[in-house]
Amino acid sequence: MEITVLELDDFKARFIVRGVNVAFINALRRIMIAEVPCMAIDEVAIIENSSVLYDEILAHRLAMIPLKTPKDGYVMSKECKCGGAGCSLCQARLYLDVKWEGEGAKTVYSGDLKPEDPEVAPVYDNIPIVKLSQGQSIVLEAYATLGLGKDHAKWQPTSACAYKYMPVIAVDLSLCDGCGACVESCPKGLLKLSEGSVKVSNVVDCTLCRECERVCEKGALKVGWDESTFVFLVESTGTLKVSDIVLKAVHVLRAKAEEFNFQLSKMTGGG
């Protein structure tokens, strides 16, 4: 297997994976979405709520706010010594205490949530939660825990996670007359006319729409793909760095493979 990184920052990664099949690459995608643990608000104790939102709706909106997830310091509730009752090892508390006495309306934002642990704070401060009219208030405690996306979408660390086959665009120069029809039809602008023939630039951005192939009357251009090479795109909600999401997904996939081998060995008597 060979990996080529095309783009990488804390929130987005794009890379090429060579020498694998679709089963492997799709397993990696599904694990990134559903089995990489991250923090999210799971329980809310509402002390006062005179806003227009019902308690349940308010709790749901809080749950969908991405929270920063420390690399260490917290464990899954089901794995904690407290047995899931909630303690400092498996739970982080956040507080919201806002009252509006001014004119008009006040928007309460995610930045108004005050974390007990600064490392488990909202990723963004500008997510609207609710609007308060004069005299309205909200006082509550929220409890964040580690969880998995397969249990609830609030624990999905990715906002986008997808792959495609590596495009392959072949130009038969003996048939190409340089008419430029394919160049004009390409929605990504990947084809250029050079010295009377078509050249392909940045083929990795091809969407495999095959529009260029359709308009080429002479059949000089063929669009296909490499079934052992994939272009992968991962975007993080911000709760984890995208590089951490990929690495943790690889570790989960490896653990699954090792467990499968172990169980298979038991079934076959260790042979």
Number of helices: 5
Number of domains: 2
Reported CATH architecture of the largest domain: Beta Complex
Counting helices, strands and paired strands, the structural category is alpha+beta
Q: Walk across the major sheet and give the strand order.
A: 1-2-12-9
Q: What is the string of helix and strand elements?
A: EEHEHEEEEEEHEEHEH
How much is the average pLDDT?
93
CATH topological fold name of the largest domain: RNA Polymerase Alpha Subunit, Chain A, domain 2
Which runs of at least 5 residues are low in confidence (pLDDT < 50)? none
CATH superfamily of the largest domain: DNA-directed RNA polymerase, insert domain
Question: What is the tally of beta strands?
Answer: 12
Helix content: 10-25%
Tell me the Rg in angstroms: 25 Å
* Strand fraction: 35-45%
CATH class of the largest domain: Mainly Beta
Structural shape:
flat
Major sheet summary line? 4 strands, antiparallel
Distance between the termini: 28 Å
Structure write-up:
With 271 residues, this protein is of the alpha+beta class. The chain has 2 domains: 2-34 and 160-233, 2-Layer Sandwich (Gyrase A, domain 2), CATH 3.30.1360; 39-155, DNA-directed RNA polymerase, insert domain (RNA Polymerase Alpha Subunit, Chain A, domain 2), CATH 2.170.120. The chain is built from 5 helices and 12 strands. It has a 4-stranded antiparallel beta sheet with strand order 1-2-12-9. A 4-stranded antiparallel beta sheet has the order 3-8-4-6, with helices on one face. A two-stranded antiparallel sheet has the order 5-7. The longest helix is centred in the last third of the chain and has 26 residues, at 242-267. The relative contact order is 0.20.
